[in-house]
Amino acid sequence: MVDQVQAAAPDGAGTSPEFVDPGTKAGRRFPPKGQPLITGFNRIGLWSLYIKEIRRFLKVQTQTVWAPAVTTLLFLVIFTVAMGRGGREVLGVPFATFVAPGLIMMGMMQNSFANSSFSLLSGKLQGTIIDVLMPPLSEAELMIGIVGAAITRAIMVGGAVALAMALWPGVTLMAAHPWAIIWFGLMGATLLALMGLLTSLWADKFDHAAAITNFVVAPLSLLSGTFYVIGNLAPAFQAISRVNPFFYMISGFRFGFLGASDIGNSNHAVIGAAVGVGVLNLALGFVTYRVLKSGWKIKS
């Protein structure tokens, strides 16, 4: 039998007492069944996912942060030696100084892709994807957490590469336009993080993700003016390079350091590219969100 308690009249008068079911009264504190308890933006859940992703790659930071810095520095050593030390200049600066920003950006983009492409794919293959899907996180929060962690890794790698190159003789890193360094650095890392997340949704095994890395990401980054100015190419290849979004990321990032690039030598000339890469990221972010929301290959 349900326990009942005596409740006084609301006006405090000496009216006859009423008996109410305390279970019913307590039940009014909760929403109906099926209605979510967490409404709005789940900040705690998003922060927890972000920290989880950060800790995942920091556990092997020798491989995920410092190794890319060493590899990228080897690129600088090999190309500067191959080009000779005879004072070769590109865009009015020594070749080592010219190529350094492109290598920093290339390392950031490649590692941003590697981080986000591993997140969901590892869960799918190891059978732990439910640990990501069960928490009360919306698709947007899930995407932001994974992409944010990938961008963080890209920034760490970029900082490590920049530190290594700053100590290399013959390289001078100056911030001619800090806004371009920040904007194109973030946009490049975001673009590859979104591409990596889409890859992790599509891929069924690690070979699929490796194929995208080797046949899409690496060629687009290496053939985007990282080691040369596209003005030295034939007109047809110049047109192909201008279709490559990596070209604008790397050239805009280089403009931030040198004040000169294939795009132009003034803020006005680069702003169009800055707006373009921002719009591209918004479009790709919307596509990624819709694919993630559909549950394609993760909720079947």
TrEMBL record:
Does the keyword section mention Membrane?
A: yes
Q: Where are the transmembrane segments?
A: 65-83, 90-109, 142-168, 180-203, 209-234, 246-263, 269-292
Topology term for the membrane: Multi-pass membrane protein
Query: Could you name the Gene Ontology cellular component terms for this entry?
Result: ATP-binding cassette (ABC) transporter complex
Entry annotated with the keyword Membrane: yes
Keywords, alphabetical:
Cell membrane, Membrane, Transmembrane, Transmembrane helix, Transport
Which Pfam families does the record associate with it? ABC2_membrane
Subcellular localization is given as:
Cell inner membrane; Membrane
Q: What is its main location?
A: membrane
Q: Which GO terms describe its molecular function?
A: ABC-type transporter activity
Instruction: Enumerate the InterPro entries for this protein.
Output: ABC-2_transport_permease, ABC2_TM, ABC2_TM_bact-type, ABC_2_transport
Query: Which family is this protein grouped under?
Result: Belongs to the ABC-2 integral membrane protein family.
Question: Which protein is depicted?
Answer: Transport permease protein
Q: Which organism is it from?
A: Croceibacterium atlanticum
